[in-house]
Amino acid sequence: MSRVRFAPAIASHDAVKRVRVVKQRTRATTVIIAAAALTAAGVTFYQLSRPGLLFGATPDISAWFGGSIRLVHGSLPYRDFVLTQPPGFVLLASPFAFLSEWVGTRDALAALRLCTPVIAAATVVLTGVVVRHRGRAATLIACGVMAAFPAELYALTSGLLEPVVDLLCLAGAALVFDGAGFSGSSRRTAIGGAVFGFAVLVKLPAFLPLVVVASLCVPQVRRRLLPFAGGVVAGIAIPVAPFVVASPGGFVRDVVATQLGRIPASGRVPLPQRLGDMTAVSTAGGGDAAAIAAAVVLAGIVIAAFAVSRRRPSSFEWFVLASTAAVAVAQVGPAWYYEQYAAFFAPFLALTLGICLARLFDEEKSRAALTVAPAVVAVLLANQLAFIHRESARDVAATVDAVVPVGGCTLSDAPKYLVTTNRFIAAAPGCTTMTDPQGATLAFANNQAASLAMWRSAFVHADYVVTETPVDDWFMPQSSALRAYVAAHFRAVSADGLLFYVRNG
Prior knowledge:
Distance between the termini: 109 Å
Helix content: 55-70%
Structural class: mainly alpha
Largest sheet: 4 strands, mixed
Mean pLDDT: 92
Number of helices: 22
Radius of gyration: 25 Å
Order of helices and strands: HHHHHHHHEEHHHHHHHHHHEHHHEHEE
Number of strands: 6
Strand content: under 5%
Strand order of the largest sheet: 3-4-6-5
Shape: globular
Number of domains: 2
């Protein structure tokens, strides 16, 4: 009789205890996420404080920001100038392009770069939000890897596309998933689909995790797949429609054909070099053998985690594993490969490590997980801080100012020399609208005559050329007529490591 009387009290006590434990873990993961986000922001601010990294010339970002600048000046990508990426980043950066009307492109780019600590912190926060249901250790290692991953930090100062795609993909996942399973809200699922769709408009490989989510939605077509697919269509179609309508052929040529053209069989960057960036071994000075070994170890960790714990993977775990595998394979696709490409792999690697650690170690029975996670993060962070300390970029503003007048019609094979010196936009109409020279050559790779006409027009409508290498060595079609035009109408001037071509007369 007494047992029956006290059973509810015992059950109530157990329920209170469970709630207390849940609250403690929630507070702990919140502290971990906040600390990791502040660390990411701090490391990125420190990176910007290095010589030249706020105002200096770094690769790629000037080309993409240049697209935004052209847009606010009335030129449409794909119709008026070549842009080899979808228009997502151009649209996102357009407020800073408008700012350049008042402060110049140099300061507007610096203002855009000052947003990168916010992007870094937000990416870490979203990583923590989607993985926190797996416990403190999983949250710590996932957020820590995201905060200190070398390729991610490099991309924040160079192209910037990958960190933005990471942010959007994680935001989409945070909306679509709720803990280990899908969100029960069709509205959240639709908004998540729209975010994933817009991520594709920043960089095409974002379609990989999008397809994974769509595949997981298939068993519940009406409740999940239709809202998600509707959101995806809206997220892609609404922003891109004006550009496609204005120049459908130009869009296909610049974005679709150019991206497919990056996958030839010859001249490929070796696989070990790619693995070194994907596993962060390369920044620690590891060679090909170390990169391959690191990749094997990571694969072994995943296999062990799911072999030891025979629990069926949740929908969220399937998303993480399938997305990680798909993105890893995509890293091998393009023949050309740059360090920032591995930044798109960073969030999926971070989440994979988090769920694997949670499967290998039960937090209630072992402190090993809470020992391993901070040790891994500390090593990664220390290595990255040492690397950042040696980092710098060249600021050529004073050199360009001495040769090229403000407002002059200026061309360069590297738009970073124009955007960072306020020479990207000319004062007089009729100047060249060349924005991404390398991308322009790639876009017209199968049409030599059109490519030569484009480059001739660029030189005809320029009074100054800023470069590091002679025009004959530029990445463009080699033409004796084009070389003769440059030689007849420009004179070469060298200054502080730069080579200028100044129009005669």
